[in-house]
């Protein structure tokens, strides 16, 4: 039994990307990107209006070219407009450069978000496989083992096996795919949590049958993460020209951070409870 607990401790400590991500790491590039897009759109509209007004003014002054005073004023106005246009062009250049930089940053953020689901799937599957093998060695009832086996498989299958690098490249080429990426990250987490809660209910029941007096697993506290309304989020993103996307990324990262935090507490509970069971079995 000690061998299983040692293996379990190893899997718990090897987190990889299965950890909480900060706002700066995965959310900031989308927030800044949305802000830059809004600013550039505003500047574009302003430039179009300014161009239309300047064109009307120039045409009117052309009719009255006999007036040297009006002609001189027109030349000064054109020079001022040209200078402003140059300044506006420089501002747009730096805004575009910043947008490109944050867009590349968002590619890395997408990679990390997908990689977290992949690493979480593999890591918790190893943990649950180890718990199943440990319970098998302890001689747990076959019917309960069969039910536990089903829950272990369901918890693994609820999370999709994706390629973080591939999705990052696809996002770089076709940015619109971010809508689907956020959809499956939210959908998979919701399904995974519902199955996982049933799994820990069964683990808790087995431990109680073995005489271990332990509190309920922390992961059973509160409600499971709900599935987000993808269609509504997509419509909101399109209507706001991408600004709502920053909030959607925030929701996905927040939900996963909460899940990872719940896992940290629950895995500590699991390890301590199984160590107590080992002491009881040895004595």
Automatic annotation (TrEMBL):
Keywords attached to this entry: Membrane, Transmembrane, Transmembrane helix
Transmembrane segments: 21-39, 45-64, 84-111, 166-185, 230-249
Superkingdom, natural source: Archaea
Full protein name: DUF4234 domain-containing protein
Organism: Pyrolobus fumarii (strain DSM 11204 / 1A)
